[in-house]
Write a structure and sequence with these properties.
Elements: H1 2-32, H2 40-54, H3 70-86, H4 89-101, H5 111-132
Helix pairs in contact: 1-2, 1-3, 1-4, 2-3
Length: 133
Amino acid sequence: MEEEKSREQVLNQRLKQWARKLKSDVIAMYFALKHPQTPLYAKIFAAIIVGYALSPIDLIPDFIPVLGYLDEVILLPLGIALAIRLMPTSVLDACREEAKKNPPTIKPKMWLATYIIVMLWLLVLYALYDWIK
């Protein structure tokens, strides 16, 4: 019983560390968007990931059971991991340092990503309407 509690605490601590690292990597990618040595393809992909991470609207709404958290638990971390692989190591290191030294005081909103997500949902709703009709 006590060993089970200990495992839960260790797992909980690891998840918290992972979440903090994920958050700091999103902020580092935000700075990488402005970095002159970031390749264009990496900027485009990072802009999509950062925009989605900071967007006030989710692609899959959280109120949908199980699937609602799929994007935060699986899709977003996979996207961040891929964006990190696309970044040159020197750029990523510099942006991680900048994120540690100068974290944004206000969470930036990526309204373009919000617009794209809303448009996708409207397209899905229209397709459903057209299919039912």
